[in-house]
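Sat 14:20. Reprocessing the chain from the morning session after the first attempt stalled halfway. Input below, unchanged.
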Amino acid sequence: MEKALAIGIAGGTGSGKSTVAAIISKKFSGDVTILKCDDYYKAQHHLSYEERCTVNYDHPDAFDIPLMVEHLNLLKSGVPVDSPVYDFTVHDRSYETQRIEPGKVLIVDGILVLAIPEVRELMDIKIFVDTDADVRILRRIRRDVHDRGRSLDSVINQYISTVKPMHEAYVEPSKRYADLIIPEGGRNAVAMELLESCIANKLDK
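Finished this time. Tokens:
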């Protein structure tokens, strides 16, 4: 069996990575598997909720990189995996797993996809979604308050203490590894058409 085409989609928090992934998934319906790097945050059952709230989740060390790499290699080779499931409401890995079936296209969605060498090297197409910082923080506030049950103060404090400095240290510099930079994500119709054509050509080969 031919190996899956692995596409890494990186970019800052709230940049629109998941929207780009969803558009590709819809375009190549039935052929796409999506792996979310967020589900590979390390389990922290040994920490209290208060302690988990202080962890730097935007640093590469927050992720279970060996497990992520193992699962990426299996999916690229056509083998299903039981991915961990991360619960953002409690800042910890769930005790449940989710079965992820392989496809012709494997999309890997996460802020540090291009910043972690072991993950980046497995990507056949490397994408960076580049969106204005003001837009990204507003999206993050709306998402974290409405979808993840966070307080406005906690979102702002986390952004100032870890999200912004880690973006500047790891996420933004990883842009140089991208094959394609997409300003404004899925709203950039021209860039999305180019990406879809590239994927179609690689699948045809």
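The radius of gyration is 17 Å.
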